[in-house]
Amino acid sequence: MIFLPRGVSVRQKVNPARINIPEAMEKLRVGTFTGYLRFDAPQGCGVIIFETGKLVSAFFVDSDGKQRLIAYDAISKIFEISILGDASLNIYKLTPQLALEIHSLLHGKYIYKEQDLKLIDVRALLNKISAENLTGCLRVYTDERSALIFYDEGHALGFFHDGSAELQTTADLSSSVARLPGAKVDLLSTGNAGMVLADLMASADLGPIWQRLRKSLLQERSQREEAAIRTKEEELEDRRQQLLTKMKTIAGKYVGKFGVAQVEKAFANISSELRKSEVNAYFVSMERLAQLVAKPEKIALMIDEMKRDFN
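^ that's the sequence the OP posted. Answer follows.
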């Protein structure tokens, strides 16, 4: 999970499997977009950051928080979860300064992580940030909401909270997040947010990466589906054979070898799906054939026992 406030919303809850992500990112590049794309999926969460049309950062963390990928590795993983169809894409607009601050945060080093806010001496923590001239970020968050306070050499630069596209000078929403049940705190040291970052789209053509992954993943999905169908068919046929054995045993008990032979003939018309019409026709046939060698009472007992096994 990547805990970030939502900037100014551009698109919400888009299924990225339905779009060509590299083409969409090229449009953002041409439009000199600044902000971030967030991809949430059961496998994990990915963030792609644009700064005035340049794709300057990509970050992915898996659902366990153990696997962390950056740059092209992160982009490939984001492409993968998008193609698989389980992801949800949200796009948020930011200012260039805030976009670079988010990049620094994602690559920051934890000083404190997942600390229960109720157990933290907030005043002492703020004094520590000031005394140590920390450049970094204080994150206050719950599962649903987040607020960030950025620092430069111990001095607060501003606040980032839901719905804002730039650093704010007030912290009202930050305070409200802090009051929410289960609120936690992270403190991270970061690098220089003013650094010049390379454009990852200028360094590599993402289209072929997307196409290769798409072809490979769709082939794997097709193979899995075919294997699942074969397995299901085998299971159904096994069930059919087990029923056939039971029917022959029951027929042998009531009408002898003649009944066993007639079961084999009548059962040949029953598919592995055991369709109702096929089963009904089987019982009609067995009842008619058994009349040649057995009394009605015995036939009725045989049919009743067979039906119990079918059910």
